[in-house]
Amino acid sequence: MMAKQYDKQFKLDAIQYYQDHKDLGLIGCAENLGISQQSLSRWKKGLEQTGEIVCRGSGNYSSDDEKEIARLKRELRDTKDALDVLKKAISILGR
User: Fold this and answer.
1) Cβ 40 vs Cβ 14: under 8 Å
2) Coiled coil: which residue ranges (predicted)?
3) What pTM was estimated for this model as a whole?
4) CATH for 1-55?
């Protein structure tokens, strides 16, 4: 069986579709596009390696504002966790 050839623009569009719809997952996006999950995964990996699509690793931010927002979100999450612990302690000690 001969593999179907896709042009570069289709591959870029497919990867963009995946990035815009990550909630569908790789398999869901591939099904919607009518391609195999392996093809989409291979294209994504290949285009990331060549630098044709932007791939930020964990902890890499595109701007200082995004970095500050992430820091504030972590701080808020930690504060909420501490508040929950204090509420539980008060309820236990208040008995």
Assistant:
1) yes
2) 62-89
3) 0.51
4) 1.10.10
Q: Give the integer Cα–Cα distance in Å for 92 and 95.
A: 6
Helix (H) or strand (E) holding 78: helix 64-93
Q: Is 33 exposed, middle or buried (0-12, 13-18, 19+ CB in 10 A)?
A: middle
What single-letter amino acid sits at 20? D
Rounded Cα distance between 39 and 55, Å, is: 18
List pLDDT tens digits, range 1-51.
455 778 888 888 888 888 888 888 889 999 999 999 999 999 888 877 777
- The residue count for the chain: 95
Query: Which positions ≥6 away from 37 have C-beta within 8 Å?
Result: 26, 27, 30, 31
* Structure token digits, residue 88: 């539980």
